Amino acid sequence: MSNESNPVADVSEDLSNGGQGTTPAPKISVSKDTRRRVVTASFIGNFVEWFDYAVYGYLAGIISTVFFPESDRQTALLATFGVFAISFFVRPIGGFIWGHIGDRIGRKQALSLSILLMSVATFCIALIPGYATIGVMAPILLLLVRVVQGFSAAGEYAGASAFLVEYAPAHRRGLYAAVVPASTAAGLLLGSLLAALLTSVMSAEQLNEWGWRLPFLLAAPMGLIGRYIRTKLEDTPAFRELAETDHAVKAPAFAMFRTYRKQLVIATGAVLLNAVGFYVILSYMPTYLSEELGFGAAESFLATTIALASYIGFIFLTGIASDRFGRKKMLIIAAVLFSVLTVPAFMLLDSGSFAVIVFVQILLGGMLTLNDGTLPSFLAELFPTKVRYTGFAVSFNLSNALFGGTAPFMATLLIGMTHNQLAPGWYLVAASLVSLIAVLFAAETSRKPLQQD
């Protein structure tokens, strides 16, 4: 693929030319080739992590019939999404541990280990027998593996964002950090494509018996490739300077709570729209379309696939816009748009038209990029180098644990309780309002030097 059609190559080539910004030049020089490899490694590693993590959500309908006893459809789905949500509760713990490793030992070490854990856990899902074979042990083993996945994912998004921001030219930190949500969406895109392919070429019996296991088997080779690339990189200039001057703190979490409590609260609130929006729009939507609105599984996956492809393109434009106009302004615009347009968009989904569904998903995905393309650089800039990984990881994972991982479960539960198919839309509106309030209390971060101490 040529650089003209490859977003990773575009960012890497465009941003490897240095930058004139407010951040003083680092003592450790960074070559053009090094920046290119950093962008590529961050994209591939995060892509692998979120492909592994997302496949479960896309195949939730099938997994519910394999790992849980026969019951009514909604109860089985709630059980499946319940396992999805429970695995998120370990993420704040993972945020503290990965943050400690990343701020104390190095970003590189944390990222290399997290991708290995994720790949092994995902591969194991493919090997677990179903409920018909081993009974209640099937959902128990599934839950244990999902907990390992959740623990691993806790260090990935924050670590990759910090890694890119600390390598980026000062005036391009937003665009560099946009690689993280773009790679996340690319992982989702591959998962959606595989799910659409499997549901198109296989019968329901084949999918339930063995077909659903195929995407999980890809985790091992993909994870080994991602880990290998990451081990070939040096740690960021900002962290190496911190380590060389012996300013790395021994207990980053204590330092964060002692000095940066306000930033932590703001960050946790700002993440809420990303947490709910990401999992409702990009992960739960195929299940919503097929289970609640009655669309075919292949049609639902195809619509989400088209929306994901457009999302990846929009995300880089948002990164550029956040560098030009500021992080705070972009986050406010995203929250306001979701507050006003989400429920009308969900009303259009019930039109019965495939073209309308694709349009609505592209619209919602484009709105989400205004938040997602800005958030990684905003959170990384909010905390100083010595607690950057910890502050980002704890706030991001706390909000995702409470509201992101539970979003598919809450959407399904709210529909069941209210008998209103617009319930997920109203839930997303509530999340956007909380994020709006948090961002209003934040200071602009894009035009300030990265804090060291």
TrEMBL record:
Chain segments carrying region Disordered: 1-29
Gene Ontology CC terms: plasma membrane
Subcellular location: Cell membrane
Membrane topology, as annotated: Multi-pass membrane protein
Ranges of residues in domain Major facilitator superfamily (MFS) profile: 38-447
TM annotation in the entry: 50-69, 75-98, 110-128, 134-154, 175-198, 210-229, 264-285, 297-318, 330-348, 354-371, 392-417, 423-443
Single GO MF descriptor: symporter activity
Record keywords, A-Z: Cell membrane, Membrane, Symport, Transmembrane, Transmembrane helix, Transport
Coiled coil (UniProt feature): none
Function: May be a proton symporter involved in the uptake of osmolytes such as proline and glycine betaine.
Similarity remark: Belongs to the major facilitator superfamily. Metabolite:H+ Symporter (MHS) family (TC 2.A.1.6) family.
The protein's name in its UniProt record: Putative proline/betaine transporter
Species: Paenarthrobacter ureafaciens
Lineage: Bacteria, Bacillati, Actinomycetota, Actinomycetes, Micrococcales
